[in-house]
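Take a specimen:
=====
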Amino acid sequence: MNHRAFDLGLAVLCAISKPRQTWSLSAIAEACESNRERIRQIEASALDKMARKMEAIRLYEETFGEHPVKKESYLIRQHRYRQNKRDLVRHRREFKNILSGLAPGSRRPGQVAS
């Protein structure tokens, strides 16, 4: 499987998705130039990793108390949220340019440079 095609396919799906929109395995496979079975395997692997991580955190908390990840201050979490939101907006803008046939940084005819 071509990882670049896979990443680009997922990025395009993310860029054109509406909030809470779901995609079928077939649609994801088509966008990522893969097959349904491989997408299902990747999904199962990701869910398994998340379940193991949650189990590890639960065991840590039972043994030592609150997990260090949960001790982040409110301000740090807010800063990360805002940074991720800015990154998401920037990436969506770049993907919209790609989808509309524009190269990043290029201008439409007649558009004045700012």
The two ends are 41 Å apart (CA to CA). The helical segments are 3-16, 25-31, 36-64, 74-99. Residues 36-64 form the longest helix (29 residues).
